[in-house]
Amino acid sequence: MFGKNTKVDLELNRIVEQLIKTGGKEKILPIVQAGEPVLRQQTMAYNGQLSKRTLAKLIDTMRTTMLEAPGVGLAATQIGLGLALAVVEDHVRDDEDDPREIAEFPFHAIINPKYTPAGDATASFYEGCLSFDGYQAVRKRWLDITAEWDDEDGKHHTEKLHGWPARIFQHETDHLSGELYIDRAEIRSLTTYENLEDYWCNDPVPTEAAEELGFAL
């Protein structure tokens, strides 16, 4: 559980409630784009500043926004909120030969997430971002990680992640420390979605062979 003596931050709770309302009945929030200062800020650790009701509404709204985009992850900074919170979710598709090692990744709210590499293996694939809309670039990431996070009830989790789920977790966790995937991408591989599909899906990129991700994070 989050700290027993933690008190709800009434002002922050009010701000978050107002933010949620901007999503309307559809519960879809605008996604902050690159250049907004909030994407470059270190987020504040979550330790119970929101009421349980407000936190649940926030997580639900973030999930709806993510799925509508569509994406497989969304960090709080991407909706303009500087809290260490993200949502992730993806499901196995029909591409049996997909080299990204996609695996079922059920919906999670990941609070105060962190990760460490589990081994030295890396993988490079095209990666996109809902806050850098319209583009993708090749990004090298750890193939295996040990992921840690708290859930909405304050329970701590530790799990080994591999392949595509590990990439999603790394991407969203990096957001919460002010990093965008493009910061360490192979810039020469940067391409629009349209040109990625037309030219690069089945061919080597200027650095390492990669496949289209198809979803942004």
From TrEMBL:
Pfam families: Pep_deformylase
BP terms from Gene Ontology: translation
Catalysed reactions, as listed in the record: N-terminal N-formyl-L-methionyl-[peptide] + H2O = N-terminal L-methionyl-[peptide] + formate
Domain of life: Bacteria
Cofactor note text: Binds 1 Fe(2+) ion.
Cofactor(s) in the UniProt record: Fe(2+)
Residues that coordinate or bind Fe cation: 129, 171, 175
Molecular function as annotated in GO: metal ion binding; peptide deformylase activity
PANTHER family linked: PEPTIDE DEFORMYLASE, PEPTIDE DEFORMYLASE, MITOCHONDRIAL
Known function: Removes the formyl group from the N-terminal Met of newly synthesized proteins. Requires at least a dipeptide for an efficient rate of reaction. N-terminal L-methionine is a prerequisite for activity but the enzyme has broad specificity at other positions.
Protein name per the record: Peptide deformylase
Name of the gene this protein is made from: def
